[in-house]
Amino acid sequence: MADRPIGGTPRLPRAVLFDWDNTLVDNWVSIQDALNATLTAMGHAPWSLADVRARVRSSARETFPRLFGARANEAMQIFYDRFTAVHLNTLETLPGAAELLDTLETLGIFRSVVSNKHGAFLRLEAEQLGWDRRFAHLIGAGDAEEDKPSSAPIAMALEGSGITAGEAVWYVGDALIDIECARNAGCISVLVGDGHGEETAAADPDIRLSDLSALAKMFTTQ
Question: What is the Cα–Cα distance from 42 to 156, expressed in whole angstroms?
Answer without folding.
Answer: 34
